[in-house]
Amino acid sequence: MRKVVIILLSVLVVFQFIAAQDKKVLNPEAGQAFNTGLNLAKKQKYEEAIPKFKKALQAEPNFPDAHYMLGYCYKKLSKYKEAEKEFKDAIKLDDKFSKAYVALGKLQFDMDKRDEAINTFKAVLTFDPENIRANYELGRVYYEIKQYKVAQGYLEKAIQINPNYPSPYNMLGLVLEQQRKYSDAAQAFENAIKKEKKKSKKGTYYYRLGKVYLSLNKLKQAESALTSALSMTRSSSIKAASNFYLGETYKKMGQKQKALKYYARAAKSSQWKQAAEYEIDMIKNPDKYAY
Known about the structure:
With 291 residues, this protein is mainly α. The protein has helices spanning 28-42, 46-59, 64-76, 80-93, 98-110, 114-127, 132-144, 148-161, 166-178, 182-195, 199-215, 219-232, 236-253, 256-266, 273-284, and strands at residues 7-8, 24-25. It starts with 6 loop residues before the first strand and ends in a 7-residue tail after the last helix.
């Protein structure tokens, strides 16, 4: 499907961009425009990159990678309909373009087209069953639609493909938690923490680990995990939730003053204010709740 090479594109792109040095096109003008677009996209100059990819397509219409990068830029600009069209055009030109399928499926999920997203990810698996991204994303979609058993299967497959990738462990932990398999969920979150290099993500995983330890009534482990979450996360919502569940942990431990301290911190968040203030009132005025 790819045409005979005249120019070898040589820009190595980070994030989720195409490895341009492996992509070959017929027309030198198309290659130059594409490389310029990649450099602009790498700098997050998406509006400026779009005309370059369009120019590449004018010079070389049979250029699926240019359609893919147009879709990528449109998605970054929240122009979802335009992005969807470009990803589909990339797939029309290369029906085994895994990266374009995965990008399209993720976009469809964001557009709340969940059935279409599932079909798109499954299409990848018909020719690339070991594609970790498609397996992971299917697990994520099935988690969102509460088909936890199905989600579990895809996530376990993703882990089998690459045991060092942390995201499937995290999602598997969420799936197992929803099935009340708390011990297995704790193991999954612990694996996510071990594999994850980013401190802020570790913080999220520690929060989730703390919650399942609390469900298991393993209070010391819950305390340790939630304290780690507070020290690592950058997310205000994770901090607030960790404070609330530390309050719950200390309440179960019978340490009322510590519980009050963390409930008070959680109450500063609008999301947790009502629940935290209720718990504070229960501790301070137990007679009100005596039946």
